[in-house]
């Protein structure tokens, strides 16, 4: 191998590209809220149907509310996925996952032995507290930046004029917003 040949890091290039794509994808959505909500639904749906075998002895946690546990778990998993792909429903999904976590306490073996309950509760709280951030240079942001610089209102209607700084047409008798008069004529 030639020592003057350029170093090619093709082995790690795909991993770096995947990392940056995932980081860009998860940065614009309530990723952790969806993950906690999704993880919270798994033990709530699993424990009522699980059985533990110790030799010839089978220990089953089956309850009469197995169908309710399955419904709550599947709904929490669905809400977790919806938080990833539909950010607009984050308030609804947050409130719904908190309510489902609370309902899972009496219905589903103490909310999946408090494990699913805590994960769903934290996921719902994260969904309610998440707010979309400002995009930084992605495609389509040119129009948003142009609209922000314009300062117009909705549907292209111009916004209110700042009379403090817009004194180009003020005369000596023009009153300003603060009640004073323009002394520069």
Automatic annotation (TrEMBL):
Bias class Low complexity marks the residues at: 166-177
Q: Does the keyword Nuclease apply?
A: no
**Keyword Transmembrane annotated:** yes
InterPro entries registered for this protein in UniProt: DUF6114
* Keywords assigned by UniProt, alphabetized: Membrane, Transmembrane, Transmembrane helix
Disordered: annotated segments: 149-185
Q: What is this protein called?
A: Integral membrane protein
- Organism, as annotated: Streptomyces vinaceus
